[in-house]
Amino acid sequence: MKDSNIFTKIIDRENCRVYLKTSGLFYDTSWIQGLEGGLGYKSFGLITKIGSEPVCLSIFLWTKKGGILKLAGAPLPGCFTPYMDPVWLKDIDDHVKIKIIYEQDRFLLKNGFSYIERRSRNDCLVEKMENNSKYEISFPETFILKIEPDIEIMWKKMQGRSRNMVRKAEKYGVRVVQSSGSISEIERFYNMLKIVFAKSNSSPPHPLSLYKSIVRHLMPENRLLILSAVLNEKIIAMGIFVHDSKEMHFLSGASLPEAYKTGANNLIQWYAIKFAVENRLKIYDLGGKGIPSIDKFKASFGGEVHRYGRVVLRTKTAFIAERLYRKFILFRDKLKTKIKA
Description:
- The protein is an alpha+beta fold.
- The protein has 12 helices and 15 strands.
- The chain has 2 domains: 3-139 and 308-340, Gcn5-related N-acetyltransferase (GNAT) (Aminopeptidase), CATH 3.40.630.30; 143-307, Aminopeptidase, CATH 3.40.630.30.
- The strands form 2 sheets. Strands 1, 2, 3, 4, 5, 6, 7 and 15 form an 8-stranded mixed beta sheet that branches. A 7-stranded mixed beta sheet has the order 9-10-11-12-13-8-14.
């Protein structure tokens, strides 16, 4: 296959729908609109043809930083999206797939993008790109729980301490209710989240506008689950989950101090698992791995470690800008610490 036979062009989001059949939650219009509305990103598609035949569609989010740097991501960092693989429209081997990814990335560089990121739902294709020194390759991990149709099997999958915490929550009288996703509920959740991050002298990494936008766009599509743990008529913990007809993802959670000693967070997760069983979902992604104490909590529900694939391509300008930005953030945080002291 000659490179001259490969042709790539930009298409808008509406035209992407022509090629998307059953691609899943993170390609759905409601999800993309939620990110656009909450973060101010824009989106576009890249369609690649071999000869006259479409073979690949990639959907990208994009934004500008510093007024000059153009960033494109499938997905971009910080938007609750673990993967946005290319949609392969024809059955082609991995060698050709990688060649098409390189072609699309060259196209983006020629069109002024300085930073390009891709995340894959598994590590197989990304592993085959490791020899390309132009890319930064990594393999973020998460916990994936396979959902069985029998609730008793799911109960037995959980580690003993997690089952005990669920029992403890029930003994305390904690009850879990499904929320409607009203603005006041999301604001309550975010205030709770700020309390959690304040313990480490930090702030939530995602803005309130993102949560509101995701809820506004996904709730009408029945792709959102919001659970609240209530004790003595007071909400002490909340969890937000997104899903389609096959898989569910833990988006975010927050709780008050009372939740830890009563097992409220474990009870919320158990209710989410029961929701997945009742709706015949296939997998539940507990939402990332990397903080030991939280990893221990997530592992207790019986999930297995899963690797996503991540590739990043930067221009020299983007590389320098990113290093300067990180130094600025480090300086700013040190200054804040001194002021508080």
